Amino acid sequence: MEEQQxxxxxxxHQQGLIxxxxxxxxxxxxxxxxxxxxxxxIYLQGKNPLVAYAAVLRGSFGSIVAIGNTCVRTTxxxxxALGMTLGIRGGLFNVGGEGQLYLGAAAATAVxxxxxxxxxxxxxxxxxxAGILGGAFWALLxxxxxxxxxxxxxxxxIMLNFVGIYxxxxxxxxxxxxxxxxxxxxxxxxILESAILPILVKGTSMHLGIIIxxxxxxxxxxxxxxxxxxxxxxxxxxxxEASNYAGVKVKYSLLITFLIMGGFYGLMxxxxxxxxxxxxxxxxxxxxxxxxxxVALLGGANPIGVIFSAFFFGALKAGGNLMQQTVGIPxxxxxxxxxxxxxxxxxxxxxxxxxxxxKNDDSARSLDDANKGIGDI
Amino acid sequence: MGDLFSxxxxxxxxxxxMAVPLILAGIGTLYTERxxxxxxxxxxxxxxxxxxxxxxxxVSGNIFFAALCAMLAGGLLSLIFAYLVVNRRGDQLVAGxxxxxxxxxxxxxxxxxxxxNRTRAVLFPVIDTGFLxxxxxxxxxxxxxxxxxxxxxxxxxxxxxxxxKTSWGxxxxxxxxxxKAVATAGLSVIRLRYIGVLLGGLFAGLGGAAxxxxxxxxxxxxxxxxxxxxxxxxxxxxxxxxxxxxGVCLLFGAADALQLRAQTFGSVIPYQFYLMLPYLLTxxxxxxxxGKTKAPK
Lengths: 377, 297
Description:
The complex is a heterodimer.
Chain A: H1 2-44, H2 49-61, H3 64-89, H4 97-113, H5 120-149, H6 153-171, H7 209-226, H8 228-238, H9 240-245, H10 250-277, H11 288-298, H12 303-326, H13 333-347, H14 360-370
Helix pairs in contact in A: 1-13, 2-3, 2-12, 3-7, 3-8, 3-10, 3-11, 3-12, 4-5, 4-6, 4-10, 4-11, 5-6, 5-10, 7-8, 7-12, 11-12, 11-13
Chain B: H1 8-34, H2 42-60, H3 63-87, H4 92-116, H5 138-142, H6 147-165, H7 167-177, H8 179-184, H9 189-213, H10 227-237, H11 242-265, H12 271-287
Helix pairs in contact in B: 1-6, 1-9, 1-10, 1-11, 2-3, 2-4, 2-9, 3-4, 3-9, 6-7, 10-11, 10-12, 11-12
């Protein structure tokens, strides 16, 4: 009897390990397949994909400057994707990161422009707090609509992205507000030196943001895994009805998760301004907020996985610039690779609701489960 | 503000023109959602439709070939979505999101090839209605429009008829309402859902083509600017009924047209606030309507 039990335990343990490796290898296989398909696409454009990918590698890890660029590109992707991860775990699909990061950046810029009689670290801290609040503020309306009126966040957040981008555009065009007069491209005045994040390695653009981002990732990992807040968030994400019966205030949980997620995106915009750009530009993010969603999904919506996934895509973006300069393939190819990787991972069954079986009525049933609340967009 | 409305006829005409890409895209998406699938990738299908439409028009100089290219591109993209969601049972939000990202990346990457050829693309021709276009207000608004606009006028009642009066339309609606019953009745749920998604992609592509080839004749990066999502919202507000959906689209078209006119005329309010209009209107419409509609499942 005991022996049987032991064998069973060992078998289950092995199965667990196998599952672990399958789960861990899916993103890697997806990314490899994405590179393969993109390679064909690059070849069709008359370029050698190997030469193109070699340029990506040189541009991301070829020198100290290149590594610095990789870290600089990783930072915003990682911060945003961590927010997205929290959201996905809490049952939210926030497509509004783009707008939230614009508002965060605007708030941080406003504070960064103020000549405050405080030490530099204090000025930076105040700007960061303003940025986080700015992002959370932009998440407030969709959060309230979702939590208390049951309107899905997808369309509302997308619409608010545009409102936010145009609002920032107004801010950087209006001299009475943030705009720098006489600039060739609409931008705000440059933030004060005391609000600028310190550079970590001289001669590169690597700034403190990367450390903040990685620490945030580790904190989020522990918070999600071990804290009551993390448990409640995951519970609401997994099954809101059951959470309700268990006495969790689902509406407030959704609201709080959404606002914190907005705060992450606000911080993302803040770090871009304080660490890299030193001013707010019209249209400065160009879709970075959407890319964080891909980063979060490829990281398996798991903070540690997201750290790796963000570094990977940061490197790809840093190298993509060199690829554009030397091989002549537009750096938007990076978005194609991201999209393909996510498509492959969906095909491999990430976030699939039920085990596979292809019978007709079974398909009907499982889609039904997957699409709960579809019309409430 | 006096300036703004001094030319009321062009404003009305533009309202309809701006509504047409939404209506065309939505007519197909209506079928998708009636089969119980939510495809947010309709934005991506619209975008590649815009691109392929302009590319087809530039290459061939034939507007019908251009429209065909646009529909094929949009349809192809939606088939990828259908495979992932219907066969592989992937998460439809994630799949749709990735489709949108793919469409954006592909069109940006291929853009240089399009601009290398700087000829302006052919447009959807305006149909000459003779004396009808002399009618005040209604004349310029309705009877002096391009073939794409007429297509939207015609397809709205046709799709309503198919959906409500044919047995095939009943099957489609049934898949959304009760897929198990449909499966029990011996119909293929998978096939009906594929058809729904494909129709959505084909017409989203056509809507995209209408966006670029009604009056502009060129492509700009991310040209659709999330109009696909406005379509999804308009379907909710229009309660998945072709006629009320088209009505809602006209409202969004008017907001778009107002924004365009405000930009050209200039006003006290900064132009950025006019640009926000269609998006704010979408949020207001959704927020004002909650709990009153029941979605097809």
